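Assess this one:

_____
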Amino acid sequence: MPVLSATEAISPAFRHTTTQMFKRFRFAFWLRMAVLGFFTAEMSSGGGGLGNFPTNFPDKSSGRHAGTQMPGHLAWFTPTHILELALAVAIFVVVLTLIILYINSRLRFVLFDAVLQGDTRLGEGWRKWRDAGQRYFAWQILLTVISWMLLILCLGLPAALLYSGHHLGVWHIDALGIATLVVAGLFYLLLAVVLGIVMVLAKDFVVPIMALENVGWQDGWRKFFEIARGQASDYVVYFLMKIVLRIGAGIVQGIIGVFVMLILIVPAVLAVIAGVAIGVGATMVVKAMLITAGIIGLLIMVFLMIAVSALIGAPVSFFFPSYAIYFFAGRYERLGRIVFPPPPPPPAPPAPIVPEPMPEPPPLPA
């Protein structure tokens, strides 16, 4: 079977994607891929932002913090309230994270099967991959706990030390606090990149091993290390190519998304203008109804935008698992036998024609 490099695997993955998603267009399959892409986060190309740092530093000459002080109308918001709010948010985040991870873990195998076979049924796949998904869920919990512990050690602990040393407060921070948090944040960012690489290795290569050999994540990682031994450069190139492909897919996806969103936004803007025109001089009852309708309309708009983004990203959700499969198939024999099946044996040569014996002539009359 062929062992494809990171660049050579692009063409068959692209061909497989165009065949299954466009040439054999099936709206139901496209919709299922959109759902799988949304819950496994394969449709997204990443993004994020950075917050703003305070710019008012303590005045050392005055012996007190001259940074931004707590506004008078927020004087009631004490550190105790902040602690209670943080605890409530933490509980909510933990519960939500567990739910998302569980759904993601089981649907990850459904997505792998869908790309490998070219079709899937969500309900059937959800039941089929229950055990494998639960084993992968345990791995994802472990990875999440590690990431949270690193976050606490890299950012939480320095912040606590700065707070105890009066370099950081609820409404102020000095230059030492900013420098410390920046360095700690950069260090955590480096560790987050390492965790991201581990996560990609797990979903691209360990998941196929777990699926095809029905093993847990420990044995899956062990098998992967055996396969990848001595091929580190191939996987580095794979990661670099995947970054480039993600950027390209994100640009195309964004351009298409802008046009589609404009189609959705124009009617929404017209509806807002009409609502404002109706609300001018209207009674309080009418205004309350318009506000309620606006909130409902906003929720519908958000849902539509998410749904449209998932539908637009369906081919992306198919392509990247396909790319991983074609890259890994030549290195993992069980997967390779499915992706590159051996050619059928040549037909057997025709049996030689044996002439039938001539019938014996009738005996001559005496």
Observations:
- Confidence is low (pLDDT under 50) at residues 45-70.
- The radius of gyration is 31 Å.
- Residues 232-279 form the longest helix (48 residues).
